[in-house]
Amino acid sequence: MPSSTTLIFMVIFCLESLAAMLQNGFVITVLGREWVRCQALSAGDMIVTSLAVSRFCLHGMGILNNFLASFKFCYHIGYLNIFWNFFNSLSVWLTSWLAVFYCVKISSFSHPVFFWLKWRISWLVPRLLVGSLIICGLSASFFAIEQAVNLETINSQNPHGNCTAAPAVLTFSRYYFSCNVGFMWLIPFLLFLVSIFLLMFSLYRHMGHMRNGRPGPGDPSIQAHSMALKSLAFFFIFYNAYFLSLIISAMKITTIQSHWHWVREVLTYASIYLHSLILVLSSPKLRKALKMCLLCAASS
Q: What is the pLDDT of residues 219-239, one digit of tens each?
């Protein structure tokens, strides 16, 4: 029986995951209706919609994985982990592409590379999304192979608990972990960092130019850019917290029975939830739809 502390964090984890699924479902509904009505989506909305779908599924997989592990349904966890790995990797890549997209569209650098990207970014986005799906599908396939090899190793153990294939399996697992962290997590994380730093530097420099030209802290343009910088700062903090939680989770420092496991899960999924919340509040389209929903709910 779990301790009272563990139960509290389990309830918090479940509530925040359901809230995050509701939030991402709202984004999918709003942008999906626009897609049906207009038969098209802008490049930015395509990334946001794809990210909302991946995070909706990621939260669902997180709930299933954690509660099946808590109730000792270990046979099913390996298969669910494959889907969790896919949606988690996809979410990491899509977040990075969204940061790259904002950097290219908003930043005011005069380098020829930025001019070329500004001109081609809308054409590149659908191809980047398809490429991310393919890469994450391959990663999930390799993860499925690792799960099958681990299961075969467990089944091939002799009555004394020895297994001649154990060193080879351990080597394969370490190789897979290194490749997965290096390619599926580290590369998109670096893309995210570079894009966010460039965008923040561009906005900060642009604010300096506006203050010199039109002094006064109450200027609407300066206030808008200040708000954008604050949103990017929170965006940066929450994504870094999520990435750190992924690394700690992959190191398997805590077990499912420990309340520290549930503390880590609460913090990890809270970072995703708050990251998505910033996306909703920073989008005029989504913010307007949210305000209308709240007004309808209040009037009823």
A: 555 555 566 666 667 777 877
